[in-house]
């Protein structure tokens, strides 16, 4: 395989499994040397990484359409069927707005350098 050439599924699976086996072997060796039980690496498949990628995009503010396009879903409906629970809902947005408003008020209260500060028409 040439440098920079896209991985097909079979090649990716081979590379991934080889890397996982090497990491587990290294962990087993260190654990034996340290006299402890080795940590068993979790079994992960390619689809787990795909879900992680989509989740990271959504957490970063990507739209349904953006996620649909990068995952190659035929429609946004498919994307929403799988990942809708990860997009913030109205309650989350309302909570974020109020946190921003109230957080601004909280930071404006209290003494600053021995002087009181006026916030929203009141002395704090």
What features would you highlight for this structure?
124 residues, mainly alpha, two-stranded antiparallel sheet, 5 helices
Helical coverage, percent range: 55-70%
Query: How are helices and strands ordered from N to C?
Result: HHHHHEE
What's the pLDDT, averaged over the residues?
83
Which quaternary structure do these chains form? Answer: single chain
What would your notes on this structure say?
With 124 residues, this protein is mainly α. It contains five helices and two strands, in the order αααααββ. Strands 1-2 form a two-stranded antiparallel ribbon. The longest helix has 26 residues. The mean pLDDT is 83.
In brief:
By secondary structure, the chain is mainly alpha-helical.
Secondary structure: elements and pairs:
Elements: H1 9-34, H2 46-59, H3 64-71, H4 76-83, H5 90-107, E1 118-119, E2 122-123
Antiparallel strand pairs: 1-2
Helix pairs in contact: 3-4
């Amino acid at each position: 395989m040439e440098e920079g050439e896209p991985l097909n599924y079979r090649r990716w699976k081979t590379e991934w499994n080889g890397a996982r086996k090497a990491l587990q072997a290294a962990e087993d060796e260190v654990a034996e040397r340290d006299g402890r039980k080795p940590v068993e690496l979790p079994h992960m498949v390619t689809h787990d990484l795909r879900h992680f990628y989509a989740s990271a995009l959504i957490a970063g503010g990507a739209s349904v359409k953006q996620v649909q396009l990068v995952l190659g879903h035929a429609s946004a409906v498919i994307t929403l069927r799988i990942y809708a629970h990860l997009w913030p809902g109205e309650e989350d947005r309302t909570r974020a707005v109020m946190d921003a408003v109230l957080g601004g008020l909280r930071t404006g209260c209290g003494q600053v350098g021995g002087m009181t500060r006026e916030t929203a028409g009141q002395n704090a």
